[in-house]
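Running co-folding for zinc ion.
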Amino acid sequence: MTNNTRRTSGLSRKRTNRNSSSQNKSQHNRSLRKIQPKGKNKKIYSKSPLNNLLTKAGIIFGIILVFYVIFIFEFPANYPDTFKVSNMTLDSNKIAMEIETDSYKGKLIPLDILLTIGKGEITLVGEKETTIVFANNKKIILKDGSRKVKIDGKTQKFNAPVVKYKDVILVPGELAERLLPKIAKFDNGKIAFTLSGDKPEGEYQNFADYDGYLRLVNKENPLTKNYEPTDLVNVNSLDSIIAYGTNTKLRDEAAHALANMYKENEVQYAMSSGFRTFENQTQLFDDEVADNIKAGKTEEQATQAAGTIVAVPGTSEHQLGLAVDVAIPGVILTEEFKNTPAGKWLINNSYKYGFVLRYTKEQTAITNIIFEPWHYRYMGYPHSEILFKEEIVFDTYIKSLREEKVKYFHAEDGKDYIIWLLSGSLKPEKLEFNTSNGIGASSDNGDGIILTMRTQN
Ligand SMILES: [Zn+2]
């Protein structure tokens, strides 16, 4: 630096410095200074201190304004009037969904899928802010109507805000990739999570309301008179367990599971009843009522009593083609079955094949059906193991899924399962799934669709 530079004040020094830094001691600089008379240069700065101050204030104001626009100002959020999950696919290694909204098109996903796959827990709900901690320890704070999400204490801005549609919270889809970078992929309204390295095996099926093995059937969740499964097979055609009587059919998967359970073990038993039509059940029920009336009960008493022993038509699991009554010679549909080798073996092992004892002794108050040690229900694995291990009946299981929506389970097969009940606005318009490896979708026989997903542990 020359003496000349040192003598000049404020802005001029800045200007000289900026020039010299950008052009590094250039000749151009020096020649400029030579041209400008010293006196004149001094005059400009001594003359306008107010001007100088105003300029500085202007710059500070400008910086604040820019800061405000970039970091604080936000346009009010545009809450969507429509939202739907238009398409969903589920297979043994991946779940994907397409989201449609009228505002922020292609930029939003439901928070629920993030919570479900990332095992997120809402730890704090403020007036506007929601704090969520995920299984990978990432912590986020969402603010309704804001594009800014605090991730592990750092504010990050997204191209869409957090908005609500009815009971569904929608978040920017890019958030999924930031939180679960290894498994999440988001692109223009399509969100996909890779759950494991498994390859899909089963055939894709289009989901229909009556599908699945998790339909709860009881007094509050009846079947329609016309319901009849389309994939019934005669158990006697499987060349394994024997079915006798007239009701020898079960749905395909249940029939094969029963045959395998029988084949792989040395306990003797037979199937005494499988699928029954609504009409079969009506006949059984009417017979029971008639017997009660003969025994001296009024019609009302007779009907009431019959309902605890024979399922009221429409409320029998036998109409599902997923229930099986098991018997051994001489012990048919009596409580004594629990003391037989078959009764003892089934109660402790059937869950491995997807069956459970449906009407337990301890929980008749919940099932409203007497203890039936002979009646087994197929619901598929790992659900059967959950019921067995947690000592709950099917009614309780579905009730808790309807309330909690999600269940995580580490099963004996060494795999981790996510069981997710979709209801209300989260139900997809179209759902494709495959049924291999315990992966699939099922109606709960109410408003819900239950997805069963296997994840890598
Ligand atoms: Zn039965």
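Result summary
The chain is about 30% helix and 25% strand.
Residues 3-72 form one domain.
Job closed.
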